[in-house]
# Entry
Amino acid sequence: MPGQGRRFAALALLVFLAACVRVVPPSRTLAYPSRPPVQPPIVPPANALSVGVRHGPPAESLAIGASGAASALAAFRTSCPNLISRSDRSGLTSGADWKPACTAAANWPSADAQRFFTHHFETARISDGAAFATGYYEPEIAGVRSRQPGYDVPVYATPGDLVRARPGDAPPLPNGRQPLGRYDANGRFVPYYSRADIDDGALTGKGLEIAWAADPVEFYFLQVQGSGRLRAPDGSIMYIGYAAQNGRNSSLIGGLMRRRGLIGSGPGQYSGSLQGIQEYLRDHPGDGREMLRANQSYVFFRERNGAEAAGGPIGALGVPVRARATVAADPAFVPLGAPVFLTLDNSRASGLWVAQDTGGAIKGANRFDTFWGAGSEARALAGGMSARGRALLLLPKGTLTRLGIR
# Structure
């Protein structure tokens, strides 16, 4: 789940299901072993400019519906303070580029939202524009603050020994940042505990439990979503949000099931949707546990209180995500806060969205994860969402000319 620590988030809930990894907290102060730092060369990561940017059709030609435009305008308006102040990894824009649109958005009437987008933006196609979109939602599962019978799955806060490597102690990641891990008793930087390690008790007794869940399968998918709600037997709700991730790679459960011939419509096969995958995990608890543990990635949580809980999960941009308006994207290819227009083979996901979030499985140009809110309908929509089509990025008018793109 970017500027505000965020989520594991986005999600490929169909065959491409994976843990959504959001932003991690700053490295903590640590006494490192003394030796001259070695700074390995950093290869510039790919971004929108490196994969190619072209003019798209006029914004006036897009089939932007009135309700979708109004929701997108509200999402864009809340994004503006961070949009104009953060650096853009895509290489496409600066904060100054967005100021005219953001100034106008502050008082633009929702009833005329379509004209706002056609008046202030031009469209761009990143790479070939071929898009793939999945869905995510805010789950609600059974959970309690204090351990009691039937609630045995720990919900951990961020461990204090989870840090980024000092330069020279480990090779940098493709994006140039140092990897996450821990320093062992000998002062060596090593990968952080995996999901299997944590399930086997690596963090037991460290006082990190902020809550306890009832169902390990449901909790796993809450980790995939990156935030959610824990409902206790008395009806009280605890809101939890993404705090950090262990830095390990994720394995795609849907892909693993497909390789084993478990996904399909034949005898003994299951749907590749969230519901189908959960059904398999429950029908085969032994193999299911092994599949869950194969995903080495693990998410840590914090409690969401007050206005944050009431406003919904906080996305990677640092603002609450909005149902049917927020989309997670890769910030190397889409400026966080930018509008995106999707034309997909699933009409529910087609239309105008605003990139306000990221996700560990949401990587590359034109890869998106659509947010559907909370509740049973949102779960069904997100769990069955797998759509392909075309994507257009909306940029402030004049951006492409400034970039020298004809």
